[in-house]
Amino acid sequence: MSVDTVGFRELAMAALLFIITQFFIRSLLSKHYRRLPPGPRGLPVVGALPHLGSMPHAVLAKMAKKYGPVMYLKMGTCGMAVASTPDAARAFLKVLDLNFSNRPPNAGATYLAYNAQDMVFADYGPRWKLLRKLSNLHMVGGKALEDWAQVRAVELGHMLQTMHELGSRGEPVVVPEMLCYAMANMIGQVILSRRVFETKGSESNEFKDMVVELMTTAGYFNIGDFIPSIAWMDLQGIERGMKQLHKKFDILLTKMIEEHRASASERKGKPDFLDVVMSHQENSGDEKLTMTNIKALLLNLFTAGTDTSSSIIEWALAEMLKNPTILKRVHNEMDGVIGRNRRLKESDIPKLPYLQAICKETFRKHPSTPLNLPRVSTEACQVNGYYIPKDTRLSVNIWAIGRDPDVWENPLDFIPERFLSGRNAKIDPRGNDFELIPFGAGRRICAGTRMGIVLVEYILGTLVHSFDWRLPDGVELNMDEAFGLALQKAVPLSAIVTPRLPPNMYAA
């Protein structure tokens, strides 16, 4: 064997050793820089899905105490990041907002929202921007809300009259049914120039049941969303229920649109929201709306517009029934500002800081959306030093943030006073203060944020100012939650109301 051959072998071995060393160094560096956030060890195939149970927001909040503010869960074949503190939410929804501006595909978007042709589930792009722009300009934005202030006052008058009649007979008011009926008519007046339900009865109750079913089923963690290869089996029966519910809503929406077209001559020169939206079917711009887009948008507005605000008002009333001193204090505030010879006006609200504090405290403790609607990463990114892969689903636990003891003193107690002084007095629920984000934050914040705050403050304030409230004899207050896209009371609030104002204040 020649010296040259031995030297070549030594050189080759050295080169091979160098390559192997580099491989291991890069592997270690890759693992260091691509370290996933901590999280629970899931089961084979299904991952952490079975761990979430029927109250995922509460389970995830408990997990966060163990694993930290940013967690990573393997959910079937998908990865899911969960943010559970204000700083973690800010990192995802502000710093990385654009990267998390889309929704992941899911059964709710497919079978309820016309295959994501709506505003809530649509991809971030031209169609979403057009739907959002139209909604802001003509329904949920500041100027639009001012334009239909009288509609809110009239419909609230109808609700007060019905409640006054029930109270005079000693019959209880079922709060969520009453609120859903009134809000659906408010929205109907703006969208269709007419009340959706002329009288409260079986039709309006069915609509309420449909809305609750939609918000509940759309909030389920559906196995098929996380393991697409077995989605066709519909193991939980969720997709079957969604398809049946979609048919009911489609019939209702089709009827609304057909009746609206038939009455076009009555609105000459006074177009309503649906007229404006339908005019964009012939839009000469780059983006046109189909009838499917229009139906999907109406579905968003009628369901989210009625259920989320009504659940907040119901929770607020329940907390005041549980804490009578709070009800007494807000009554005293209102009597001093408004008196008892007229109804509350929206212009009174800025002069009622304790009422506003009650609303904020309810947003904190009982957010209408406990887990924000899921988002998905367009590209891989880093958060808090952790690697977040592309196509990772994001869930922000708004419920956990509102109950974080590092942010809120005595977070399980309902204390409106916390918002009257100190740093909390400046906190606003419109998405810039991440300690309180009941409507989400960033570019996919709920389009109806401004409308939701107005409805909650005005309707809750009017109900509190107009009546004394108590539970029916022998009834105990149940404060259990029922999980869904909107956080419902497990047992609907039923209460006896007694008028506080002159009889003529309850006329429609």
UniProtKB/TrEMBL annotation:
Signal peptide: none annotated. Its cofactor is heme. The chain crosses the membrane at residues 6-25. Catalyzes the 3'5'-hydroxylation of naringenin and eriodictyol to form 5,7,3,'4',5'-pentahydroxyflavanone and 3',5'-hydroxylation of dihydrokaempferol and dihydroquercetin to form dihydromyricetin. Pathway: Pigment biosynthesis; anthocyanin biosynthesis. It is an enzyme of class 1 (oxidoreductase). Heme binds at residue 446. It holds the Pfam family p450. InterPro entries: Cyt_P450, Cyt_P450_CS, Cyt_P450_E_grp-I, Cyt_P450_sf. The keyword Membrane applies. One of its GO terms (molecular function) is heme binding. It comes from the Eukaryota. Belongs to the cytochrome P450 family. Keywords: Heme, Iron, Membrane, Metal-binding, Monooxygenase, NADP, Oxidoreductase, Transmembrane, Transmembrane helix. CDD domains: CYP75 (cd20657). It catalyses: a 3',5'-unsubstituted flavanone + 2 reduced [NADPH--hemoprotein reductase] + 2 O2 = a 3',5'-dihydroxyflavanone + 2 oxidized [NADPH--hemoprotein reductase] + 2 H2O + 2 H(+). Its EC number is 1.14.14.81. The keyword Iron applies. This is flavonoid 3',5'-hydroxylase.
